[in-house]
């Protein structure tokens, strides 16, 4: 295991600048880096989701509410608006995050994005191979978190001790022609083992599952946690943020909208037709022809396959996935940190439908899911109602497959 030195300066501005609206708060840090919280920190809030579900025009990640929230989480915590030292800002970094599968296509860029978060004090990178170099490389970034590397099962417990958020992108990705379900035979066992270790070593942590097929791996994780006696359904999440990110991007392009204003809730699951973007709930309010609804829905559902085919055998989405996962991590950390205005779509144990697991928008708080936003599911279009009914059969099968797998596995009692 290698402990990497913590940097002594924070060049947040250089990492997060570009293309944002100037805002009212300009901060001068004593280390010589000018930090305009509104124009620069808000850029990093590209990782931030919608900040409110009540206002009709609230921007998804750059509206006034978002700006205020990002200022709270990145800057205001450090004290007053005027002069402040790096040490003050650094002292706010207080959460430990572990990435399991950190040397992979998603793991590496995800680790970089998490390393940029001033809310993180320690970043634990775990993989079965090749993680030392990734940690050494990342540790040179002058952001607050300490980077530690852990290789192989003998170091897994140490990687997880005291961690607040565990992110799991470990496993194999798709190749052309494969469905996410084709990954089940390998990834189910990987997720089972990693969640078992999380149950033993950080039972209170938020667990973010990225490894596919999420529709099954999240139920597997739930069963493992139950057997371990530490299951808290409010803290187990299937990361479906990429579906929202894609939906927002494609809708903005199609309707020529300002990207930062667009928010499309995506519900259901995370595979093919189980992914259901609720275009009728798009904010800002926009109308679609039947053809546009069909075209956009199918594109959002198949966007992962679009990347798999473009990569032609070299894996699936990694960079956009890392971006989406980092946004979900950042949202979780803000919620843990006491921000009361954090909303994300995620696949969780749920009773909003007759299925035991379902993705929908939730409010996140210090203890995980604070509320499920059922409003999104009311007043669906006829197309969405039909698609929701159709997806249930497939999603149900994937959930049952996961539960059956988990129940066949022995789980070591700690
Ligand atoms: N949720 C989503 O939206 C989404 C999107 C894209 C990909 N994915 C999934 O994410 C997973 C990872 O994709 P990738 O492109 O990073 O794959 P990758 O092959 O590039 O990386 C996977 C990493 O996991 C590691 N690994 C394998 N077994 C492990 C174990 N037992 N413990 C710890 N680490 C282990 C590998 O060594 C590798 O470094 C795949 O299952 C893929 O389907 C999910």
Automatic annotation (TrEMBL):
SUPFAM superfamilies named in the record: LDH C-terminal domain-like, NAD(P)-binding Rossmann-fold domains
Entry EC no(s): 1.1.1.37
Keywords: NAD, Oxidoreductase, Tricarboxylic acid cycle
Catalysed reactions listed for this entry: (S)-malate + NAD(+) = oxaloacetate + NADH + H(+)
Superkingdom in the source lineage: Eukaryota
Listed Gene3D superfamilies: Lactate dehydrogenase/glycoside hydrolase, family 4, C-terminal (3.90.110.10), NAD(P)-binding Rossmann-like Domain (3.40.50.720)
Lactate/malate dehydrogenase N-terminal domain span: 96-238
Domain Lactate/malate dehydrogenase C-terminal, first and last residues per copy: 240-405
Keyword NAD: yes
Pfam family, one: Ldh_1_N
One Gene Ontology term of the molecular function aspect: L-malate dehydrogenase (NAD+) activity
Subunit structure: Homodimer.
Entry protein name: malate dehydrogenase
